[in-house]
Amino acid sequence: MKRNEHPDSQQSWRDNAIVQWFGRMWHRLWKHIRQFWHRFQLTRWLIVLILSVVFVMSAYLTFEAKTAHVGNLKAALSQPTVIFDRKQQKAGELYSQKGTYVPLEKISPNIQNAVLSTEDRNFYHEHGYSVKGLGRAFFLLARNKLLHRNMISGGGSTLTQQLVKNAYLSQEQTVTRKAREIFLSIEVENVYSKSDILAMYLNNAYFGHGVWGVEDASERYFGKHATQLTVPESAVLAGMLTSPSGYNPVDQPQAAKARRNVVIGLMADNKKLSEADAAAYQKVPLTTTNNYAPDSSYKYPYFFDAVIDEAISKYGLTEADIMNHGYKIYTTLDQDQQETMQSLFKNPANFPANTADGTMVQAASIAMDPSDGGVTAVMGGRGEHVFRGFNRATQSKRSPGSTIKPFAAYTPALQNGYYYDSELQDKKQSYGSNNYTPGNYGDVYRGEVPMYQALQNSYNAPAVWLLNKIGVQKGYDSAQRFGLDLDKSDNNLAMVLGGIKNGVSPQTMAQAFTAFANGGKLTQAHYITKIVDASGKVIVDNDFDEPKRIISKNVADEMTSMMLGTFSHGTGVTGKPANYQVAGKTGTTEADGVNDTAGTTDMWVDGYTPDIVMVNWEGFDQTSKGNHLDVPDGVSVGHLYQAEMTNILPTTKQTPFTVKDANVLAASESASASGNVWDDIQNGADKVGKSIGHGADSLLQKAGDLWNQFTGGLGR
C-alpha cells in the first residue's frame, strides 16, 4: 500500500474492477444474444405468437358468446321458473334474484334517466363496451397490482356489461372474466335493442332487503308502482345500485339522501334536468312507504328443495340456473297429498311430546308411486324450513330397525324353499364365536312360531335364526338388490335387526318397498319428469329407468300376504287407516345408554298398497339419554301414519290387493285340515306348488347374480 493511500480507496478500486469485468462479460453476451435474435428473426416470431394467442382467445370467446343462448336471456329474466305437478297443473314458482318483471313503458322515465346518468351516460352510443372505460379499468388494475393494493379496480363496465355479469358470470375481478364479459355484451347488443337491454337491467338489479327489480323496489321503499316514481325517488333507487346496503333509505336515510343528491346533480350534468330543478329536488325530504308483499309461491318447500337437488345432481344445472332462468319443471308431485302432509306436520298432536328441555321430536314422511317411482309428496322435518336445508326424508341416514327384515331375511327365505307358514324357532340362543344373542321384547319366547306371525309381530329371535339357516350372505345380497347401501362390515347376523353401519333414508326405504307393491319390480325414486327452458326447448325428458325385476311375482305376493298382517294383527294395527288394507313393516331401534327398554332412537312405519308406498320416520336428530322416544320395542306405533294414510288413500285409485292376508290363509288351511281326504291332497298340492315356485325363483335369482357378475367382469 502506498503511504498516502486510504484503505477505502483500495476497496473502491477493487469494486470498480469487478463492475468493469461484469460489464465486459455482459457486452459480449448481449452481442451473442443480438446475433442469435437477428439470425432467427425472433421478434417476428414473438409477434406471431402474441397475435396467435389473441386470435385463439378471441375465437374461443366469440364461440362461447355465440353458444351462450343469449336469445333466451329476456325470456329467462322475465319469467320465473314454474313447477308443475303430475297433472301438469301449476304448483308454484322458483326465483331468488328476480322480482316482478314490467316492460320499459311501465317504468318511469325518471328512473331511466337517473340510472343512465349514474351508471352509463353513453349507453345509447356504444356497442356493449366502452374503450375509455376499459382503459381506465386496466390502468387502475395495473396500479393496484404494482402498489400491492387489495382494491377492486372496477369502473369500466357499461350497463350491458353489468347485465351480462349478473346473468352469466361470477363477480370475481379477473382479466379473463372481463374478456368474457365484453364478448357476451357485444353478442347481447347484437340480439337485443337498447330498450330491451335497459328493461332487463332495471328489472334484475338488486335494491337491498332481498328485493330485485325496480317494480318491487318502488313498492318496498315508496309504496307505488315504478311508473309513478318522482325524480327524487328515482334518484334514491339509482343511487342504491353501487351499494344497496350503504345507501338504503330505510337503514341509512342520511347516506341515502346524500347519495340521492349526488345522482340528481349527475342528472343535471347529463342535461336530464335543469340546474334550477335539480336544486329544488335536492331539498325535498326523504320519506319511505312499504307496500311490498314478498313472494309466497314456494308452496311446498321440502318437495321443491328435492326438485332443485335432483336438477343439480342428476341433470347438471346450477341453483342460479334453476332459480333465475325461467324453466318449466314438470314433476311427480300430487298437490293434495303434499298439502295433507304439510297440514298434519303442523299439528303437534300427531307427534310424541317434546323433551323436558323443549327439544322437538323430528320426523320425515315420503309417498311414492310404486309403478314408476315418482315421489308424490315429501316432508323432511318439523319446525321452520330452511331453503335447501337438511331434508330428513332424502338425506338422513338412520338405522332401519326391524323394517329391514323383509329384505334381509324373509324374502330370501321364500326364495330358498320356505313359505309363509313355515315354522321358525323362537328361542333365546347364541351364534358364532362372539356369542351374538338377540332377544325378543320383554325376553318372551314361544318355542316355534309361523313365519307370517314372526314377521307381523316383529319377533327378533326367529328372524335371526332364519337368516342363520339360509346363510348371512344370501340376506346381505338380497338387501343390496333392494337398493339398501350396505357396508362390507354389515355382512353378519345383526344386519337383520337393523345393525348396519351407514343407515338408510326414508326415501331409500320407500324405494325398496316398491318391489313388493309392484309385483317384484323395483322402481327408482325421482321427482322430475321434464324440464323446458325459457325458449320452449326441452332440455330434460325423463324416460325413467325401466322397473327392474329383483324377485318373482310369486315371492312378492307371498311377502305382501305376510305383511298385510302387520297392520291387521301385528305391530302396525294402530297405524292402519279405517276401511283400507295396508301391507308393510314397522321398526324401532333401542337408544344407546338408556336402561329403559322403552328408550327408542328411531321409529319407522313403512307401508304400501298397489297404488302408493309411504314411509314415516320419527326420532331426534341427536339422541342421548335425555333425548329418546319413549316407545317400547315390539308395540304398536303409527299415529301420524294412520292420519296421513286416512287422508291420502282416498286420492289414489284405491286398487285392491290381489292376495289375501296370511292370517286369513292360515285360518282357512287350519279349517280345512279336518276335512276330507281330497282337501288334504289339495292342500298338499298347494304347498308343493309353492315350494316348486320358490325353488324356481331361487334358481332364477342365482342365474341373475351370475349374469351380473359376468357382465360386471366385462366392465359393463
Automatic annotation (TrEMBL):
It comes from Furfurilactobacillus siliginis. Residues 92-267 form the Glycosyl transferase family domain. GO terms for molecular function: penicillin binding; peptidoglycan glycosyltransferase activity; serine-type D-Ala-D-Ala carboxypeptidase activity. InterPro entries: Beta-lactam/transpept-like, Glyco_trans_51, Glycosyltr_51/Transpeptidase, Lysozyme-like_dom_sf, PBP_transglycosylase, PCN-bd_Tpept. This is Membrane carboxypeptidase (Penicillin-binding protein). In the C-terminal section; belongs to the transpeptidase family. In the N-terminal section; belongs to the glycosyltransferase 51 family. It comes from the Bacteria. Pfam families: Transgly (PF00912), Transpeptidase (PF00905). It catalyses: [GlcNAc-(1->4)-Mur2Ac(oyl-L-Ala-gamma-D-Glu-L-Lys-D-Ala-D-Ala)](n)-di-trans,octa-cis-undecaprenyl diphosphate + beta-D-GlcNAc-(1->4)-Mur2Ac(oyl-L-Ala-gamma-D-Glu-L-Lys-D-Ala-D-Ala)-di-trans,octa-cis-undecaprenyl diphosphate = [GlcNAc-(1->4)-Mur2Ac(oyl-L-Ala-gamma-D-Glu-L-Lys-D-Ala-D-Ala)](n+1)-di-trans,octa-cis-undecaprenyl diphosphate + di-trans,octa-cis-undecaprenyl diphosphate + H(+); Preferential cleavage: (Ac)2-L-Lys-D-Ala-|-D-Ala. Also transpeptidation of peptidyl-alanyl moieties that are N-acyl substituents of D-alanine. Residues 366-611 form the Penicillin-binding protein transpeptidase domain. GO terms for cellular component: outer membrane-bounded periplasmic space. SUPFAM superfamilies: beta-lactamase/transpeptidase-like, Lysozyme-like. Keywords: Carboxypeptidase, Cell membrane, Cell shape, Cell wall biogenesis/degradation, Glycosyltransferase, Hydrolase, Membrane, Multifunctional enzyme, Peptidoglycan synthesis, Protease, Transferase, Transmembrane, Transmembrane helix.
